[in-house]
Amino acid sequence: MAFAKKAAQVLGVIANGSFMSSRFAGQSLDSRSFISLAHGVHVFHCPDDVGIVAKLSDCIASRGGNILGADVFVPENENVFYSRSEFIFDPIKWPRGQMDEDFLKLSRKFNAMRSVVRVPILDPKCKIAVLASKQDHCLVDLLHGWQDGRLPVEITCVISNHDRGPNTHVIRFLERHGIPYHYLQTTKENKREGEVLELVQNTDFIVLARYMQILSVNFLRSYGKDIINIHHGLLPSFKGGNPSKQAFDAGVKLIGATSHFVTEELDAGPIIEQMVERVSHRDNLHSFVRKSENLEKQCLSKAIKSYCELRVLPYEKNKTVVF
Fold first, then answer.
1. pLDDT tens, 186-220?
2. For residue 140, which of 130, 129, 127 has the smallest C-alpha distance?
3. Which residues neighbour 304 within 8 Å (Cβ) at sequence distance 6 or greater?
4. Catalytic residue among 136, 204, 226, 267
């Protein structure tokens, strides 16, 4: 499974002396020169060894960079190392190509399984396709998150097996922003997966925003990249269809939503994010669904953001590390 092949984070240039400035002899405070710094993110996954953190720090510091924050995870009784570092640097002193070379040397030194570096102001945003069915709440929230800049992605298209009319909110929004909408009517015999594959071939990952079709093994293998799904239930409980009614009938006191990677086994992929809300005997099925939909929007949005910010890494066979 392709975890975190590409991702992006909207962080921008830190300018006007926000982090570092230089003052020369004879200059007044008003005439000081400021250095513009860029923000970078690096994630590392390799066999555990002595000195990894020191080498990572030295790699950044030797080029004049400064680490703003670092997270490290070394599972107990396992010979594996995970890290995520955020740093600032001067792009003139540390060109983007040189940065790739420097981290590549570290990757080879420690036999890394994954070493990814991103500089959001220089690197392109992740290209995604959004697949949705009739329900709009996750799709609309995702579109508004993209419009507001909360989600650092480029939406290449929206694909749906539901035909939305020309005067609907979604269609008007997509037309206003130049995002193509593809209606592909599906049947049990024909899921139109070949056409979907053609439409998503240039994307970095796919988002299923309540797409109520099961993607075939052939589709998953042909696409070969990550697919993020939102499940309106707290997995691993209440898998399959209508989980809200399953939870209501079971009399649960907590309902939830789960965002996970899509795998060949239904609703069993590695979990990225989960959110819960308390319910009681006073709730009916309608209030269950309303609360669930609100959780779904938040959970999917956070999962996409975490993925794009290089916070999600594979762990063991079917888990994730989320920094």
1. 998 899 999 999 999 999 999 999 999 999 999 99
2. 130
3. 128, 142, 145, 151, 153, 207, 228
4. 267
Do residues 267 and 291 lie in contact, with contact meaning Cβ atoms separated by under 8 Å? no
Q: Which residues pair with 206 in a beta bridge?
A: 129, 227
Report how far residue 143's alpha carbon sits from residue 155's, in angstroms, rounded to the nearest whole number: 8
Q: How far apart are CA 122 and CA 307, in angstroms?
A: 18
Q: Could you confirm whether 267 is annotated as catalytic?
A: yes
Beta-bridge partner residues of 293: none
The answer, yes or no, to whether the previous bond of 75 is cis (omega within 30 of 0) is no
Separation of alpha carbons 4 and 200, rounded Å = 17
pLDDT range class, residue 14, cuts 50, 70, 90: very low
Task: With cut-offs at 50, 70 and 90, classify the pLDDT of residue 267.
Answer: confident
Collapsing DSSP to helix, strand or coil, 206 comes out as strand
Question: What are the Cα distances from residue 202, in Å, to 196, 224, 309?
Answer: 12, 12, 20
Question: Which contacts qualify for 52-61: CB closer than 8 Å, 24 or more apart?
Answer: 52/81, 52/83, 52/110, 53/83, 55/106, 55/109, 55/110, 56/83, 56/85, 56/106, 59/102, 59/103, 59/106, 60/85, 60/87, 60/89
Q: What is the largest CA-CA distance in the chain?
A: 79
pLDDT of residue 287: 84
Q: What is the DSSP string of 222-285?
A: HH-S-EEEEESS-TTSS-SS-HHHHHHHHT-SEEEEEEEE--SSTT-SPEEEEEEEE--TT--H
User: What whole-number distance in Å separates Cα of residue 132 and Cα of residue 146?
Assistant: 16
